[in-house]
Amino acid sequence: MTSSQSFQRLAITCGEPAGIGPDLCVALAWQYHDCEIVVIADPDMLSQRAKLLNLELKIKKFDPLDPATPHETGVLKVFPVPVNKPVNCGQLNKENSRYVLETIRLAAQGCMDGLFSGMVTAPVHKGVINDAGLDFTGHTEYIAEITTGYPVMMLTTPGLRVALATTHLPLSEVSNAITEESLTTVIQMLDRDLRRRFSIRRPNILVCGLNPHAGENGHLGMEEIEVIIPVLEKLRQQGIRLQGPLPADTVFTPKYLDQADVVLAMYHDQGLPVLKHVGFGAAVNITLGLPIIRTSVDHGTALELAGTGLASGSSLDTAINTALEMASYNPMHF
Fold first, then answer.
1. In angstroms, how far is CA 149 from the centroid of its own chain?
2. Distance between CA atoms of 56 and 217, rounded to whole angstroms?
3. Is 159 left (phi over 0), alpha (psi -120 to 50) or beta?
4. Please, where are the H alpha helices in 149-304?
5. Residues 104, 121 contacting (CB under 8 angstroms)
6. How large is the average pLDDT for residues 241-250?
7. Which of 263, 221, 218 has the alpha carbon at shortest distance from 244?
8. 31 CB neighbour count, 10 Å cutoff
9. pTM score of the predicted model
10. What mean pLDDT value characterizes the chain?
11. Most buried of the four, 36, 102, 154, 248, by CB within 10 Å?
């Protein structure tokens, strides 16, 4: 794809093959999106899943030399990557873990090479990948290793965006991970990409404290006084619009959210339960701080639903539309 072509091409990874990712990708063949969709997966596995779902599916092998073209109903363009072992719905097999990581790698590298405008990922199962002896903490960190970016995880749903200062860490490690350097970088990346990817001229960022009541002036923890407040004061002087640190138990109220562009939570389960309560199924996971566009669904592998036809594709649809929106804002992409 060249910069002279305006039609977008997105890479979609199926994630864990025993989960609902293949179901959602098969369903894309009958959905219209204003872009070319290329699914990176095992074509035989997709055909088998389509038969299980009683769907007629035509697979067309993706040729990277062809220009991006509009979607054909009932046809799925596939970048073929073979699974290592046969796939059974709902049954994890660690032998397919390298296949999962290879699909992500190809999508990320394709974005770096300009082959794709962005990548959209279906859910993976972190546990089975680690059971295979592979060091993997999540999509966010793995894609950052490939693209050399500094990842900032942000989930968004209509009316609310939540970004994270730390991502997939045990709670016992969160405090030590929030340093002056790391928090400064996260906020700078968040401010930059809200401007660049979402065309927000001057983002208003609400910053949560780490401790209850944002530390209660040091009585409930010193992280706010020693790290968070000094970082916010320094970045305000650079022109970044920041409020906080604010108590996390009150920041998600209209008083604050009505004027906010994003809430920055200090750790995963401080901010994401609220967002998923508000918009589960209509939310999208976005990785900021990368040289590429990456979005993902807001749910897990749902092994019990694989092959049943009961899985909802609403979050994947939202992730695709969000990636397209981000690409249209970003002059670096096509």
1. 14
2. 63
3. left
4. 171-177, 180-198, 223, 229-237, 248-251, 254-257, 268-279
5. yes
6. 96
7. 263
8. 14
9. 0.87
10. 92
11. 154
